[in-house]
Structures are given as structure tokens and as C-alpha cells.
């Protein structure tokens, strides 16, 4: 929504061009130099607004203020034209104001109170002078104004609600695309994006490749529903053990990855040992039914900050294979020369 104010310059250019031309036409038709002044002010104001739009990190106050000044210039043009009594020119400025109101509602609905202030300034720029010239129509104009406000508030709120729903839906879809539905952990795509977002660390990152030992037996003995319960609980235990500072991913089946940011080999070994101990605790599948699994871990520390995730995964997978071959329920750290067994 914020981008509507800071990115979309097209409506500003078109709106300013329209109001400047209308003021120029009024100046030539009525021979009133005030319209020339208003046209010049419009052009100067447009330059200021475009300059403010380029400063996306600057306070938004000047942008909103210049927007209010711009509609005030249009309202002044309408006011003077209505008092002139020129019917043809009044129709032109009124059509211009109505078009501007439509643009304001469609563009500024993200700031509903601001949009309504702009709309009312334009609307009253016609209705006040008309009411002063024709007081007999004041009751009718008052009723129209109330209806006009209610309708525009409804339209603005509808636009805002639909946009919020669309944004939420996009965020939900985005979240679903990177999340494992069973455990709520990241999936592989989510892990890849998290890896790419990480700044190149001073100390190399580490990756733990986890594979549950005995999970197939749990599935065969208790059924897939019980296996799902166990996997969900494994995800919860990993969150509690690893913490929010690192990234956890369910790769698929009973395989998990833990991406550690700026963690040295000693702390990597310590964390892996805690994970092994945590996962080995019994799981209560349902009242009176317990299941046990262990976990084998392959670990790798990034050799270079530019080393890709796929390379780290292959190295961690080799270390995991060595952990399985060494008896399971343990961790092996991958090294370029030879795997080294890790405590745990």
C-alpha cells in the first residue's frame, strides 16, 4: 500500500496536466490572471511532489501536504469559475474535479482519512460557492453531500478490504510454498531462500543433515498416522533445541536439515550432540503407546563463504552415510581428507 504513494507517478503527472490545462483554458476564457498563477503553482507543486517521491526513506508528511495543496488549487479554480457564472466552464471544471475524485479514491484508499479530506476539499470547492449563489438549494446540497460522503467512504473501505485480503492471500500462498505442512518447518525451497538471504559470514556456516533411525519400524508397527505424529514432535523438539537463530528444514520423509549461521566447529559439535539426545527421548503417540527413534547426523562446516548450499548438502550427506555405517545414533563431521567422528 505504501508503494501507491511512492511509486505510481503516472497519476500525478496526468492529474497535474489536466488541472493545469483547465486553469489555462479558464484564464483565456475569463481573462483572469489568477488562473495563470494557479497554473504556475500547479507546475511548481508537481516538481516538488516528484522530488519527494524519489526520497522513499524520507518522512511522508511532505508528500501528503503537497497532495492537499494540489487539491486546494483545483478547488480554488472551481470556486472562481462557479462564481463567474460561466456555465460551460463550470461543467468543464466540475467534470475535471469528478475525474480527480475517482483517481483519488482508487489511488489513496490505503490512507482513507487522507483520501476523504482530499475528496471533500474538491467537492466543497463546487458546493460552497454554488450554495452561496443559490441558497434555496442548500437543503438538497446538504443531503447530497451526506450521501456522497457515505458512498465514497464505502468505496474506499471496500478497496482497502479487498487489497488487504489479496495481500494476505499472497503472503499465505508464499508461506505455504516454503513451508512443510506436517511439521511447519521450512521445506527445501524455504531453506534455499534462507541460505541466500544470509550475509556472507565471517566464520563459515555449518549444515547438519539429520536422518531418523528406526522411523520405518514405527510406521510399520503403529501406522502412518503415528509416524506423522512422531515427525511433528521431532519438528517441535528441533525448534526447542536449535532455537530461533538458526534455520530448520524438513527435507522430506524422515530427513531434516539444520543450517547454522556463524557457528564454529566446536559449537556445531555441541549442538549436534544435544539434538541426538533430544530426539532419542521416547515419543507419546497416544495414551499408553510410546515410540522411540534415534537420529544420525552428518555435519559440514562451510570451507568458503561462497560455497553453495548444494555442495554443503552433498558433503553433509557423505558424513551422514558414515554416521549410519558407524552404528547410527551419532554424528560425523565431514572433512576433505577423512571423516572424523564427533562426540555424541
**How do the strands of the widest beta sheet line up side by side?**
2-3-1-6-7-8
Structural class: alpha+beta
Q: What separation lies between the terminal Cα atoms?
A: 51 Å
Globally, the shape reads elongated
DSSP strand tally: 8
- Overall mean pLDDT: 87
Give a quick rundown of the structure.
By secondary structure, this protein is an alpha+beta fold. The protein contains twelve helices and eight strands. It is elongated.
Question: Could you characterize the architecture of this molecule?
Answer:
This protein has 12 helices and 8 strands. It is α+β, with helices and mostly antiparallel strands and 344 residues long. The protein folds into 2 domains: 2-175, no CATH class; 188-342, Alpha-Beta Plaits (2-Layer Sandwich). Strands 2-3-1-6-7-8 form a 6-stranded mixed sheet, with helices on both faces. It has a two-stranded antiparallel ribbon with strand order 4-5. A hairpin with a 6-residue loop joins strand 7 (331-333) and strand 8 (340-342).
